[in-house]
## 1
Amino acid sequence: MADYKALEDLVIQVRRDILRQVHKVNSGHPGGSLGCTEFFVALYNELMERDENFKMDGIGEDLFFLSNGHISPVFYSVLARAGYFPVEELNTFRLLNSRLQGHPTTHEGLPGIRIASGSLGQGISVSIGAALTKKLNKDKHIVYTLCGDGELQEGQNWEAIMYAAGNNVDNLIVTVDLNGQQIDGSTKNVLPLGNLKAKFEAFGWDVMDIEKGNDLKAILTGMKKAKEKTGNGKPVCVLLHTVMGNGVDFMMHTHDWHGKAPNDEQLADALSQNPATLGDY
Amino acid sequence: MKKYIDTGKKDTRSGFGDGLTELGKKNKNVVALCADLTGSLKMDEFKENHPERFFQIGIAEANMIGIAAGMTIGGKIPFTGTFANFSTGRVYDQIRQSVAYSGKNVKICASHAGITLGEDGATHQILEDLGLMKMLPGMTVINTCDYNQTKAATIAIADYEGPVYLRFGRPKVANFTPADQNFQIGKAVQLQEGTDVTIIATGHLVWEALQAAETLNEHGITADVINIHTIKPLDDEAILKSVKKTGCVVTAEEHNFLGGLGESVARVLSTQHPAPQEFVATNDTFGESGTPEQLMDKYGLNASAIVNSVKKVIARK
């Protein structure tokens, strides 16, 4: 049974980390990061079987790939607080000579990162590759991926989605962050995604929704169900219904905070809505 | 001067296919991916021998590069196969982010490179791929000259840790390098010794350079002929040593003069030992339909074009 109090505390602390990272350098992507905070916390602290000592090869553990690399603030915070690197290093986000580049990369050797991402649409392909290698290695662990909903406008995704179903890549769970927003506005206005569930199903995936994508209990229940679906011949897609900017009232339900940092006052307001739980870095 | 014998015309892509077959037997971590061109890339034998290690991706090159990058995580050594055009320009961003920047051990194996692809025409004849690939930090770029060298290179790159672009071609060409050669990435091969001019060639132009050197020899001009199979990292030392002796250079490649081997050689010389240079390469143009021989002639990519350039460059000394 998950310790929900501890997870909730971590969620709040991660929100603070996200806000403080982007505020310090006046750049970065808080909206999507906040929307996926509960998912990342659940994934790294309850769902994944993972080796505390980072090894690039990831043999004998579950793997995670972030396709929409711009939500690096939440990724970095959760990795640091899971012990992959010192929490203080969050202070170096987007600074010169940092391992915490604007978008995640293996290039500076940050533990926890296995592929560079940022240019969108490549994560599902990479995850399929890692999943195929797991099968060749007779490694029963799962490959998790997160991608944005707007990101699905990139054509490569659909090459990958077709391949995974056609080749029974069933040790793969792709979660789509369904927040309905992208840089220029709502996905509906920029380029409608249509019925994603029907689309994934038509391609041959096992698809499920997590309607309350910012609720830890719903995420854990849903993702455990998704895990049970693996190994049955089909790749698994989870449509995670989230609210962009979740946890900070003035950042919610809008694309305005996709790639914009709060000013001093806004930061103070946002932090007051999320009082420190585990201590700031 | 040394004599080089054509032991029978063979396509370089068969050298790749046979090299891959050998690798399949000796290295269980080697996996092969193909985007619906298995026969053209001569990957059939690997596929038959190791169906579990062969991945038919379909006509989806971007996905192929991403999958290859992911497969390295867990120790596999992916060899991707498609035409050079679809191996580079079509998937540049995928190679850039998921392979090169991520430092993944992917071998991008590209057939039908250059104008000798022939009748299919310019949509398929890439003359820009060496430039695209050599600009990527950390990418090793190899362009082999014949069947034997392509086979040796295919086997050698499996033992090298890091991304590699291996370029070869479609037509049957002279096979003249030793079958038992020790292929060393980044090491130029001196084919002829001379004092009047240095000819630095890569890929299909290496055989043409040897023919040119014979013709020149009949006219009393002796040439250093150097086979640069590795365009990056470039063997600066071999180039400088030769040009310091001869005082001028002709570079020859089946590629646009912009971004190709010639420009890499020019950089080395201009910074360390300036010398007159002439370029045998395509002149910022697309190709067209025709037989490989007709195209090599029309676009000035053969022995006679090299001879003409040598005369020009010697006059500039």
## 2
Amino acid sequence: MTGLSNNVLLESRGLTVRFGGLFALNELNIDVHNGEVLGLIGPNGSGKTTFLNVISGVYSASAGKILLGGIDITREKAHNISSYGLSRTFQRSRLCLSLSVFDNIALGAQRTLNNGLWHNIVQRKSFAAEARKIAEEARELLHVFNPALPDKLFDPAISLGMIDRRRVEICRALIGKPKLVLLDEPSAGMTHDETDQVVDEILGIRKSLGGLTIIIVEHEMGLIERVTDRCVVLNYGKKICEGKFRDVAADPVVREAYLGQA
Amino acid sequence: MTPSSRTLARGPVWPLFVAVAFAAVALTALVLIENQKLLGAALAITAAFCFCAARFGGVAATEVAASENPWLLRGLITVASLAVIFVLRDDNFGLLMLATVLIYATICLGLTVQMGYAGLTNFAAAAFAGTGGYTAAMLGQQGGLPDALVLVCGGLVAVFIGSLLILPVLRTRGHYGALTTMAFGVMFNVFLDANDFFGGPQGLKLPGINLFGWDFTNDIHIFGLVLSSYVNYVILTGILTALAMIFVGLLDRSWVGVWFDVVRLDETAASVFGLKIAYWKVLAFTIGNFLAGLMGAVYAKMTGFIAPANFTFGDSLVMVSIVILGGIGNRWGVLPAALIVVLLPEKLQFIQEYRLIFYAVLVIAILTMRPDGLVARRVRKLRAEASA
């Protein structure tokens, strides 16, 4: 290990995910440092979302290791991984549209809440105190994104526009005070201007939370250029390049992967 | 909370009085009227009243008033229930019907937790009720146990049998899980039919309830009035239904209710944020099966005789159709739906042989005209809790 390893929050070593004969991820070694924003880019089907899915436990690894804060989480079930301080958004919105914004955001804080039947049914006062605390935190977070959103806290998620739904998803990912947040195509389904807006908001909130580590998967290169400290380029499940966006974008191997051979 | 929302104008209270009074009168009329033409007219008036109330904002106003005055609502329901019991005090058949409706409604509250909240389709509710009923019958034969315990044991044994079934249910998804419960429902019947120890097709007899010296087989003498012994059962089932309503309502307005919904709506999101899917499904299954077993035991004690034919797959279907008719996930919906599904075929004599056709037509009609059921589920708003 290098001297840098103290500073590494997430590391994948020889990480392989196979779907039948297809290698979605092939012996992937990626380090994510504390406090950085890492961009994960690559052509369609290169394994970006698979990487997010395997570290959040949605898929299981065929081989290799994932360490989060030095702890091996390779074999952990999805529902345990959030307790190591990892949360995420999804490429296609996974809000529960028929539930209120409040219910959706509360899910993000689930592991800090008391789930006991006695507490929930009988001790209604302490349940209400928890609900109040979550509502306050949710209002604060929502306000950073859009000052009009806190007033919609008890509206059903389905009544929100695309951009506000994305904001709610990000709030849900942040309310549990994670160490590492995975953002899977935050610009998907939004216009260019909306994307710019959400990016500014993400950067703003990152500053206010201080040193949040983010992995972001994105096709929108303008966004990647603005927010990332470092990029990893994947192709066919392999890392083909890593470094600052400017250097990566100029790399002939990367250009070939995106545009095909001349 | 901001002061402005505290000073928000409160809605009027009178719709609540009208709604409860209407429900009580309609219920009493439907139970009492024997003449088929009059009954048809009463049904038409009831339907027209409900339609108008929904059309012109009466239902919405009632909901607002009910959520703003929960204790007034509970008080009114209690008074109205006592009034209904008073009017029907010596109508044995009517009282028996009423208690049966309440038993079905309570079992369907359990189904609401399973299907409406956690998304666990259960086509064996009648089998779980039957488990409770047979538990009561077997314990009754041994004697010795107080009836309160016998009834609770009915619920617990249903939970136990359910915990054996839950493994295959969890291993399957969606329709396949439903098929597993269906298979269990059918097996339950075949097993009882073939097994002489449980009375076989002839079934078992069992004595009425005696709760702490309160003997349910005796008429009630109070203020110089004689109330039929069935009033005992209406009171007991009414109390149990009320408790189950309160419990399920609180469950819905708590984290547990929110997590049930998330597990139903999106298992991936649920597990990524730390919810263990299997745990929440088992919890919902347990709660629902306990209610089914408990009410099955009450039913068995009330009718004094049970046989496999009382708890067939068809009965499970009837329970599922009550939940769908009422509005999946809305606990209030099971009350009118249970009334329609249990009482109407008894009252409308021409229907009786065509019962199942009646249910089928009813479910198809409701699903076509009101896909969300009679009383559609509302979006949960924990605003009151979060700003108290």
## 3
Amino acid sequence: MSEPLLSVRDLKVTFTRQGAEPFHAVDGVSFDVRPGQTVGLVGESGCGKSVTSLAIMGLLPRRGNSVSGQVMFEGTDLLGLSDKQMRERRGRDLGMIFQDPLSSLNPVVSIGVQVAEVVQRHRQVSKSVAMEEARAMLDKVGIPDPRRRLREYPHQLSGGMRQRALIAMALACRPRLLIADEPTTALDVTIQAQILALLKDLVSESDTALVMITHDLGVVAGMCDDVNVLYGGRLVERNMRHDLFAAPAHPYTNGLLGSIPRLDSARGEPLDPIPGSVSDNLPWAESCAFAPRCPSAAPDCLASSPELVPHGGGGTDGEGALRCFHPVVPAEVAR
Amino acid sequence: MNLMSSKKERIDSLAASVAEVEVAEAGTVKDTGGESLIAGAWRRLRRNPIFLIGLTLTALFVLLAIISPWLAPWDPAAQPLIDKVERQSNPVPGPEPGHPLGGDNRGRDLLSRVLIGSQQTLVVGVVATLIGLSGGLVLGTVAGAFGGWADALVMRVVDVMLSIPGLLLAFSLAALAARPSQWTVIIAIAIVQIPIFARLLRGSMLAQRHSDHVLAARALGVRPSLIVMRHMLPNSMGPVIVQSTLVVATSIIDAAALSFLGLGNPDDRRPEWGQMLGASQQYLNEHPHLAFWPAGCIIVVALGFTLMGESLREALDPKTRR
């Protein structure tokens, strides 16, 4: 196994507000990403996956947040860097693409200038060289007639095109790690598939590591080598993709799988969603946060907090891990 | 085991469905017609009669200010009718051949003075707006870009400025400068406008600070100075530009009010509409036409700028777009 490119250890993000209880948005998350690997962070809204990515990028606002733990990137702890040092790294070593491609582009600046801006920022080149680089980049992400598109504005591009332009910006300086925060959520299904295929091609071609943040298990199935499932700010299960889908051990993972509509299910058969919502969570400190929504919850789930226990399977460390007292036995796997 | 294998098939099929939809976009590029924001706003404005009226009035006014020296039949300071004022008991000469609007109380040609008066009015309106705009831009950018204590400090300064009545400020400035002049009027009006521009800009800058594209730019490591100048400021300028057209109208009216109260330029050889209005006070009963022409001009010009500004705002406001 090669050395991890990114190694997140015990990352904690706490939202602190005056007059309110501190809220642990991310509560001790650890995972590794090796060069060229695609790792998924999966969970429903509010489980801390976006906050994790923003913390890695150093993009969380200073005020009202406290971030602790370690984010080792090629031997440097990113959390210990100054704002200026972090700015040097963003865009050059670490790239990020966001959920909504329209609002993530500046509406009054042409696409060409926006892509060239990154190139100019991180490689001391002239404007014309940066523009040429931008053209090549748009071509690479599959935007037809890139020379014309350079002069156009975001609202003149279709949704898929915009996301391609954002990918071009994020990859323009060939970062070694790309974080994609729900990159396809705002796109319609056919475009989603194209964008995922494009991302897959680009990262494998350039050996870029990819952290894929998503709630869509279809995306995970298509892209990720390793999957980390988050619930309530903590990792609840980690495994290699195939093992995770084949034998989900955590009831939450099992529930997520059961919530996907499938073509081969019998007509009229109801979907099997996870009952309740994130707001039902219990504090992790003295119990299992998922217990109120868990079909296999038992009294001990409410009495003490389960630890993340490594087990023999796959996973980033060469082994999977699970945080549950009563894992799903194969016979109970949803459908 | 049976269950396991069916699961495996399921992921494989899921994975395949994601991967197999090939990139088939090249042939079906959607052309959106290539319309920029400004072109879109202009297309809406071109069919808006209110905007066209405002634009026409404004354009005529600016044109008049430029060509008035050639249009005016007399020098505004000359007194061709002075002997009439002196000989007759009537101090204001009425219309007569060569003087279609008659003369004023000092025997000067009223038409020439109204025409030339447009120059001063335009200068006051535009210069006061530009000064107010620049001051507001600086304060608003500082407050909106840095936030935190810089924002709090600038906004308290702005609050103090807002609390100063414009009239009092004009009096004080005139007293400070030993005598009122065109510049004390301009500066007094401009200072009153600064906090309005500053607040407007700060508000939209703060909204931009938390926008997705600023976050995306930060995620690319773009320098803060460039984020402010390229990503935040241009996106915040729309309301400010609209406000400045409206402020030109307010400035013209304010300048007229100050001149009327005798705080304008005391040198009446270079006429200004507000000052002419002030001079006509004591003849209002017998000779209302002395007030009618300058007042009418002020109303029409202010109306022109207001109509233009309001329809610009509507055209640029995404909420009123159809």
